[in-house]
Amino acid sequence: MKRKVSKKVFGLLEEEFSFLESKGILDAEQRALALSHYEATHKGPTFLQGIMIAGAVLIGAGILSFVAGNWDEMGRTIKLILLLLAFLLAFAGGYATENRFPNTSRSLYYVFAIIFGADLFLIGQMFHIAGGGTAFLLWGLGIIPLAFYLKDKWVVLYSLALLHYYSLTNLFDGNDGIYVLIGILFIALWLRGHRSSAAFILTFLLGMESIMHVFHLIPGFDSYWLPFLLYTMIGIGITYFPFNQYENSSKVAGNIFYVVFGLILTHPQAWNTGFAWWIVWTVCFVLYTLYWLNRGSIFSILLLCGLILRFYVDLAYDFLDKSLFFLIGGILLLLFGFWFERRRRVGNHNAPKS
Amino acid sequence: MHRNRKWVWAALAIPFLCIAIVAAKPVTTLLYGEEIILSTAPVDPTDLFYGDYLILSYDISEAAPELVDQKVRTADYSEAVKKPLYLWLKKKNNIGSLTRVSFEKPPHSLYLKAGFHNLWLNEETKKYNIPLQWDRYYVPENQGREWEERATKGDILVHMKVRNGFAVPISIE
To answer: Which secondary-structure segment (H or E) carries A60?
Structure first.
């Protein structure tokens, strides 16, 4: 059986085998034989699928816009009945066409998922419920079973987008973090069976947002440095212990957290404590980054540049006028650029030669 | 395609349940609530998903200090932040007015529930502002402006159904 690889990897293999042929290591026959063991798979949506998805999204947007238009020639109760009917019909249509017309079926399920949101907004409109939060939360949670049923990455990504919207807009006044956690649990469960790096990274970020929600459940909580510290630690942690199936995504997400929140914590205002913890933190952060720099991590060079610039901005902004500020900033960047290039060249020289 | 059939019913039932959850409280308030009229001065913005609406700023959202309980005025923010505030209402000619703001639940049914965390003292008017969650009234597209203009000539009245501290605006005049 042929080994299935992505189109990109197949192209790379083709190029590399040709290279080996040009070096005389393989002959033309061997090259063709080696390549015949691989098969490029088409993972992205086909043209037809693309058209169907676009159609479903257009219908959905039309329905959402119809609700937002609040057309007064038709009573809201009639609108609700019509939308509920459309909601059921889209689902039934999707179910009925599953075997014979899989693309149509999927589009109808997408329409169902969007009408569900329109229903929630219409009910909000009927009873003059304040907008924002809950509708997006329920929309995001409500379509998770559909994602499980269809095993569909797009529904999961859509659900994640809605939950993120809810989570971020309600971060400081909502106490419903627990529902977001339920969403994460389900999506994490889905991820176990169906790999998707994008969904993994988004779920990880949503998980981090929920930590903040959970802290807010504690009465009188105001130690905002604590979640930041936790984020940095988790970030560092998952670069050492990445999730099995998502090794690269774990490292990327972990590094982003380590950099962003690590840098935030170097600012005195991030710590609303009496003791100047930011100094202790900055020293530890610099030492840890230097440790990685010593191990040849190009990433930590970038981080160190960022760290120096952050302090440069913080200390020098009030005292120097802008021209000097940009001049020195520019020289610093150039010097780092030069160092970075030299470092990379040294790295390349050390690489084993073929 | 191998799909797990047990998810198919969940895929339909969970969204239905969500719709029912959203509708439950307002429907019971509409059916069993008590009617009251509140005065307001609306302005007209637009929401991307809900359409045009009027922001209702109720007169009862501004409380003179003497109407606010001493316990509420002197409460420690971090201790009381999760506590509900009760707005005691009184009807005169069907129009509601505020009589007291407390942590204590009124013995009668005519009251509205707000959050302590939203309470703030307006230094200019020396009154306490208590934002309420029923601050939107959805109107058909492009009709908001008319209401906004009408509001400059006089107060707009909002008819509401009130039950267990929850309210549903039903009409405006």
So the answer is: helix A47-69
Which ipTM was obtained for this model? 0.75
Domain boundaries of chain A, sorted by first residue: 1-43
Q: Report how far apart the first and last C-alpha atoms of chain B are (Å, whole number).
A: 57
pLDDT in tens, A104-148: 888 899 999 999 998 898 888 888 887 667 888 899 999 999 998
Q: What order of strands is seen across the sheet that includes strand B51-55? A: B46-47, B51-55, B136-138
CA distances from B15 to A48, B23, B57 (A): 28, 13, 33
Please, what is the end-to-end C-alpha distance for chain A in angstroms?
Answer: 31
Which one of B4, B6, B19, B81 makes the best mutation probe of the A interface by having the most chain A beta carbons within 10 Å? B19
Tell me the pLDDT tens digit for each residue of B112-148. Answer: 999 888 888 888 888 898 888 888 888 887 777 777 7
Which burial class, exposed, middle or buried, applies to A192 when counting CB atoms under 10 A from its CB (0-12, 13-18, 19+)?
exposed
Query: How far B126 CA sits from the closest chain A CA (Å)?
Result: 25
**Residue A52, phi then psi, degrees to nearest 5:** -65, -40
- How far is residue A208's CA from residue A210's CA, in Å, rounded to a whole number? 5
Hey, is the C-beta of B31 within 8 angstroms of any chain A C-beta?
A: no
CB pair distance less than 8 Å for A145 and B7: yes
**Cβ count near A202 (within 10 Å):** 20
Tens-digit pLDDT profile for residues A224-236: 788 888 888 988 8
Chain B interface includes A97 (CB < 8 A): no
> What is the average pLDDT value for chain B, to the nearest integer?
84
**What is the pTM (predicted TM-score) of this model?**
0.72
Quote the minimal CA–CA distance from A88 to chain B in Å: 8
